[in-house]
Structure formats: C-alpha cells, structure tokens
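Table S7 (text form). Paired inputs.
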Amino acid sequence: MSKFESATLKDCLSQLGDGIGELKDSLKALKKLNSANMRFQIANVQTWVSAALTNDDTCNDGVSNKYISASLKNSVKKSVLNVAQLTSNALSIELMGSLKSL
C-alpha cells in the first residue's frame, strides 16, 4: 500500500469513527425518547444519522481518487456500503421499538 493510500484509508477510518459517535448519540436519544421530547429527539436523530451517512460518503469520495488502487477502492466501497445498510436497518429497528414504548 502506498503512503497516499495509507493516508486516505486513515482519513476514511476517522470519518467512520466520527459516524460511530453520531450513531451512538442517536441510540442514546432513542432510548430516552418520551412524548414530551419526541420531536426534538427525533430531529436530533435525523441530524446525527444524516451526518453519519455523509461521513460514509466522504470516505467513499476519498477512495475514489485516481491514485487509489482498484482493489482497495472496491474493498472500501463495499465495506462502507455494508456499514451504511446495517446502520440504517439497526436504527429503524431501534426507532420502532422506541416508538412502541411510548
């Protein structure tokens, strides 16, 4: 792996790490959801999830550089897509559970 690829991958991992923090904030908010704060917390969750997905896109954009090998590019893009899909599914399940408990 070249130095450029290594630095790009490091940036990508940092972006994904930031996204994990935003998703953790989302889960905490969903666990505290009640009728008094529902609109506010749902708005926060939407913002945090959007930011996490933007971080995924930023990671993909970074590895789209022409100086990144095709194998690394494909591997990262496949992994990031999988993370985004799992994130979306998990948050949907958590949101449904939180809303049922109200």
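Next pair, protein 2 of 2.
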Amino acid sequence: MGRGLKTENRPQRPAKRAADPEMAANRRLLLKREARLRRFGYDSRVGIQFVLAQALPLGGKVLEVGTGKGRFLIRLARHVKAVVSVDVSAEEQRCARLNARNAGVERKIQFVLRDARRLPWANETFDAAVTMNAMHHIANFGQVLREMLRVVKPGGKIVLADFSPRGFQIIARAHRDEGRTHPREFYDFRALAQTLRKRGLATRLRKGANQEVLIGRLPAAAA
C-alpha cells in the first residue's frame, strides 16, 4: 500500500530503523536454536526442503496452520502468491513476523491469531492448506483437519507434515537437554491418509529421515 507515495513512506522510516535491533536479535535467537537442533541431528532446512519437494506446486492463496517461528512459512511464501498463517500464540506470530520481515517476504503473509478448529473463512476460500511440525501440538487435530478441508477449493491440496519417529526422538532429546519436555499428540499418518481417502481425496504419503508428509488432493469441481 502507498508504494508510490514517497511523502507517505517517509514518516515510517524512523520506526523501521528502531525495529531493526529487535529484528536482528530475534534472528540471532532463531539461528542459535537451529544450530542447537543440528547438533542433535535435526536440520530444519533439510526438513523444510523435503516437505516443499512433496507439496509444490501450490498455486493461488494458501492457508498455513501453525505459524510457529515462521521457518516453514518464510520458505513457503517464496513459492506462492499469498499465505494466510494461523496460530493461537501472539508471541510466536510476533517472532515469525520479524523473521519474515528480515527475509523480505512479510508483504506476502497475513498473520491471523485464531484457533484453527474454528476458522473464520467461508467454504472454498483457499487453493491449499498446509501445516508443518504443528500437528503434535494440537489436541483434537481431527477438528482442524475438517476445517482445512472445508476452506480449500475443489481440486486444491491438503499438506500435512510432522516429525517422523526419529525426528520426534531428536526433538525430545534436545528439549531434555534444556530441562524441558516436548509436548506431543500422536497421529498416525496412515490413518490420516485413510480419513482423507474416505472424503474422496487422492493421497500420497512420503517419509524422510526426520519428516513424514501426507499430500491430499480434493476432487475437482463437477463440470
């Protein structure tokens, strides 16, 4: 908005400079966390690349469930026209927004603070709905999946990705080393694939070293 109006942009520049130290500090924390996970055997860059290799292409407007720190979101935004990212944590979305700004993709992303079990959009709003490494944080994911299916257009994609058993072991070890526990709701991807097929979706299930990915494509609209 207002890209061509220089007089409107000038007052915003001091605010942008003031935010830079926070953005840089947030970036340092993210890189430190990623380096720590790599020492335990999980590289988020490899995981994201694996998921995107299975999921792409994703056209049009995409819904992401589970913003987190924005690692996957940022990479996703580089491949699609627009992304709406939903999360229940304002703190996580603030971190993700700073990371997206640092990566130069913030303009392509709309952040929405919302429980994904009750999405505010009408039926068939999005061309695809995706989630990566968030399912295990969500109780009653079946409700979220129903909402994802509701808001995706005929012929669109559902992408469900989470850690593999080995990936969960790595993340659990990293958390224990910090004196924390890693919450985990367990979902069987084969059972999820069966659920999607019962709804008429064509499915593909792929397993990597640390990730599992389920792709479902909704039936096309009747001619």
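The chain has eight helices and seven strands.
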